[in-house]
Amino acid sequence: MTNLNRRNFLRISATAGAGALFLHPAESMALVKKGNDTKFPTRKLGKTDLELPILSMGVMRADNPSVLRAAYNAGIIHFDTANGYQNGKNEEMVGNVLKGKPRESFVVATKCKANYPYGDNFEKEFTERFETSLKRLQMDYVDIFYAHALGEVGEVDDPRLVALLSKFKKEGKTRYLGFSTHANKPKQIDAAIDAGIYDVILLSYNFKMKQLKETDEAIARGVKAGIGFVAMKTMTGGVADAEGKKKIDAGACLKWAWQNKNITTIIPGFSSYDELEQCIAAANSPDLSNKEKEYLAALCNEELLYCVNCGKCVADCVEHLPIPDMMRAYMYNYGYKQPALSKDTLMELALSDDMCTSCKSCAVSCTEGFNVQKKIASISGLINVPNEFLV
């Protein structure tokens, strides 16, 4: 799909959720009671038995257990973390906050990453990572386990991954299986349908996306096959500039994604009480207003921090660098103010020390207007910065 202009955005926003493109799952109007006597609407997560509030919590950026505790007390029950977040401290915090609470009162998802193609020790190392996550969480099982950040379509139905994930579920280490993805979403969703083992897909989903129509149609096919969908990266980086002075309207972004009834819940990465309150306010009034539509439409043609993963840059690049992943690291550093997470993302890419040296000028032309060479230069040095200085 070509880049959305203002008119096309408003047209698509008007039809989203109207039934023309989406196959609506049974959406429960059951409500989750919160401490302040207000309520969240809930939606069924695919073929699972989970009924989730439309607002969940991505814990990745949070380092204050009191914010997590406040979210739980407010009626948020689904918490998403990962093995690599904050070098494991994120999972430990989740485990400590939820320890002693009724197990049926919350839903926990975690994720583990493995480099693809898989090495000889893939099964052993991946299993050890997952078991470490369970220990940190102080849980015998998680509700959802994701293979983290799958990039290639071939990863989705790779026989080794499929067999290992199936083994985890059979052993009772997780109730449901899924994978998270930032790229190749329509093809990956179709591959997941064919694989037949996936209960949930966690995917980046926002108003700046390329291939929105194709992605929505693939999501509808997934829902028909019984797969549940959880959205992330709905706020396109949280800010519109590297200095962080121009914040994105979080509520408008959440409401836009909720218009697609095939999205069960969203996991915004709030890390403060103010951000939590903004998300709760949006969930209490999830309909997208005309003013909010106008606001988002105006942002469609602006350069934000979010990379739309169109893939053109990889084809342009002489060295075929994983530029979308590098731009995600840029967003983590400048949008989320999380240099350690940015470094971790870069380290996973196994970049060479002499990257960007084989050509005299950068051949990449970004569809979003990114100065890719400048952005890479601004974050590549993080790889050599000791973790204790990344605060």
Can you tell me about this structure?
- By secondary structure, the chain is of the alpha/beta class.
- It has two domains: 6-299, TIM Barrel; 312-389.
- Helix 13 runs antiparallel to helix 14 and helix 13 (323-334) crosses helix 15 (372-380).
- It is built from 15 helices and eleven strands.
- The protein has helices at residues 6-15, 65-73, 89-98, 122-137, 153-156, 159-170, 185-195, 212-224, 250-258, 273-284, 290-299, 312-316, 323-334, 339-348, 372-380; strands spanning 31-33, 39-44, 51-53, 57-58, 78-80, 107-112, 142-150, 174-181, 200-204, 228-232, 265-266.
- Helices cover 39% and strands 13% of the residues.
- Residues 11-38 have low confidence and may be disordered.
- An eight-stranded parallel beta sheet has the order 4-5-6-7-8-9-10-11. A three-stranded antiparallel beta sheet has the order 1-2-3, with no helix packed on it.
Short description:
By secondary structure, the chain is α/β, with parallel strands linked by helices.
How is the topology of this model organized?
Elements: H1 6-15, E1 31-33, E2 39-44, E3 51-53, E4 57-58, H2 65-73, E5 78-80, H3 89-98, E6 107-112, H4 122-137, E7 142-150, H5 153-156, H6 159-170, E8 174-181, H7 185-195, E9 200-204, H8 212-224, E10 228-232, H9 250-258, E11 265-266, H10 273-284, H11 290-299, H12 312-316, H13 323-334, H14 339-348, H15 372-380
Parallel strand pairs: 4-5, 5-6, 6-7, 7-8, 8-9, 9-10, 10-11
Antiparallel strand pairs: 1-2, 2-3
Helix pairs in contact: 1-11, 2-3, 3-4, 7-8, 9-10, 13-14, 13-15
